[in-house]
Design goal:
The protein is α+β, with helices and mostly antiparallel strands. 24% of the residues lie in helices and 38% in strands. It is built from 3 helices and 7 strands. The chain has a 7-stranded mixed sheet with strand order 3-4-5-6-1-2-7.
Length: 139
């Protein structure tokens, strides 16, 4: 599939999805929460299967990230996206307290190219940090 601009001015196809995922991680790493929010649909759903947490909606998800404890940096290692412009996956490396942690992330996109689903998988099971119960549902 050829990447083309749609009527909203966003890029569709695999290149557009890769650009969206890159913008998402660049904004998160820079702590630019306005730019981060711009990559998300209003009704984004964020899932963390290892901790059985789910965050519903852009405002809560942005706040979840803004309030996440500790100092971390993220580097994208690989992005794979489908040519239909609907799904992408990324492998990242997070630097936290001098340790590097890899993670895998799956993204789904709405009709205008905003992220509407994110599922994160981390290498080790863990209990979620305290203090975010007001933002998440447990399942």
């Amino acid at each position: 599939m050829t990447d083309m601009a749609d009527t909203a001015g966003t890029t569709s196809g695999a290149a557009g999805l890769r650009a969206s995922v890159e913008a998402y991680w660049a904004a998160a790493d820079a702590r630019d929460w306005e730019a981060f929010a711009a990559t998300l649909s209003d009704d984004v759903v964020y899932d963390l299967p290892q901790t059985r947490e789910r965050v519903l909606g852009r405002d809560r998800y942005v706040r979840f990230n803004r309030e996440y404890p500790g100092d971390w940096r993220v580097r994208i290692e690989r992005i794979v996206a489908d040519g239909e412009g609907r799904q992408a996956a990324a492998r990242t490396c997070f630097a936290v307290a001098g340790e590097e942690i890899s993670a895998v992330h799956f993204f789904a996109f709405d009709a205008v190219g905003r992220i509407n689903e994110v599922t994160d998988f981390w290498p080790e099971p863990y209990e979620p940090p305290a203090g975010r119960e007001h933002l998440v549902e447990r399942y």
